[in-house]
Amino acid sequence: MNPEPDVVTVRVTSEIDAAEARQEARRLALRHGFTTVRAHGLATAVSELAMNLVLHTDRGGLIRLTAQDATGAAVIELVAEDDGPGIRDLALAMEDGYSTRGGLGCGLPGTRRLVDAFAITSQVGEGTRIVCLVRRP
To answer: Which are the contacts of 94, defined by CB distance < 8 A and separation ≥ 6?
Structure first.
């Protein structure tokens, strides 16, 4: 029998909230036996997605982390969602170097590289939802 999932939710509207989400992600991963390197990778992915909520939406959004321990393994699901402006061209947004705000353009593609599974859906005028999975090696 698997124990109940360990869920952390952070409402992100400011840089301070993004930092809190990052810290919570790291603590959650360490609590579930992830290595320090893997925990920092998850925290970095959370930081990137949380800062997107701050920079690209008027009202921010939610970061939800759900850790589930299975037999001999653990997985953390990371969900970032908002009801912001949405992304007009997902393919372009996923390219290294593309930025709508003059940044480095590595947030979304970098996040995809840090996690084991990455899915993004976005509707212009309705918002964006990103779901990632990180497995304990």
So the answer is: 108, 109, 112, 120
CA 137 – CA 135 distance, rounded (Å): 6
With beta carbons less than 8 A apart as the criterion, state whether 128 and 121 touch: yes
Stretch 18-28: mean pLDDT: 98
Better-scored residue on pLDDT, 49 or 93: 49
Mean pLDDT of 21-39: 97
Sign of CA dihedral 31, 106, 93, 82: positive
pLDDT per position as a tens digit, 42-73: 999 999 999 999 999 999 999 999 999 877 78
User: Is the CB of residue 12 less than 8 Å from the CB of residue 64?
Assistant: no
- Tokens found for residue 57: 């939406």
DSSP state at residue 73: E
Query: Coil, helix or strand for 75?
Result: strand
pLDDT for res 94: 87
CB atoms within 10 A of CB 53: 26
> What 3-state class would DSSP assign to 78?
strand
